[in-house]
């Protein structure tokens, strides 16, 4: 989530507003900002799409249809639509939707995920997840409108043919404008779990199957958006964006139990997180640190040990990212797509990332 919106009125906490973002005061609890972390490699972007600043792009999904094309689908918060790009070149292919609450319309779309030929779009201000069928973006269903309060991020896990699990982060606040987080006991509702069935006719049926979130000082999710999972290693990484306690990724099990471990505190906001599956249970996580230039932090998939940090030549202030590990025409080793400054999408060749950081696990 862009904290320029959520933290706009944090004057109640004695924060100083700087460029629309809240900055903690310099004291023993909130020490002075440290210098930006070391960058192990600077990697040229393979392409950067033509800017569209009016869109305020936020999150990304990727779809590889059977005929071999590669689409990147971005949510556009300010224009209340989806933007579709060619994943090989970055060329804009089309836009989808307009502002509204009917099927096929959106109100500040944020998180997005694709499974098969279904795309799931989280709408913050419609308080729901909308399901559409690709390639025509045919609206199919609305999920969670009766239980979601301020949804942001989404992760999908196939359970069986025609059945999915969907986790949605719900960053409702006690006082949104003042950035007041709910009391710890209420943070057990931070992630909503839905079970989704797609029948033989393509109809989508969903039900709420639970909710979770740690309620301790150490493991609570105070301001939350990005979420991603790794079924092979029973892991969820969930971004904590509240810089007052240190923005980081918290390590949860798939059932929603906090393991008592979080990654080192990021320099800025912990934003998008993507799993790079390489061999069996091995591989890497790539997490976004939202600074300029963006720091892409790489961690071992199993141990979460740091494996390196890279940046691009241009890419900055990244919100969402998505990783496509399968080969394509231009990217035989796969590609990671990332937002640049809310206005463009960048592409990084995973083969170049692997070579620059000397990664193993068959990630080439």
From TrEMBL:
Claim: S-adenosyl-L-methionine is one of the keywords in the record: no
InterPro entries in the cross-refs: 6-blade_b-propeller_TolB-like (IPR011042), B-propeller_Phytase (IPR003431), NHL_repeat (IPR001258)
Top-level taxon in the UniProt lineage: Bacteria
Signal peptide: 1-22
Full protein name: BPP domain-containing protein
NHL repeats: 93-135
Protein's organism: Pseudoxanthomonas dokdonensis
Domain BPP intervals: 29-357
Keyword Transferase on entry: no
Record SUPFAM superfamilies: Thermostable phytase (3-phytase) (SSF50956)
Keywords carried by this UniProt record: Repeat, Signal
Molecular function per GO: inositol hexakisphosphate 3-phosphatase activity
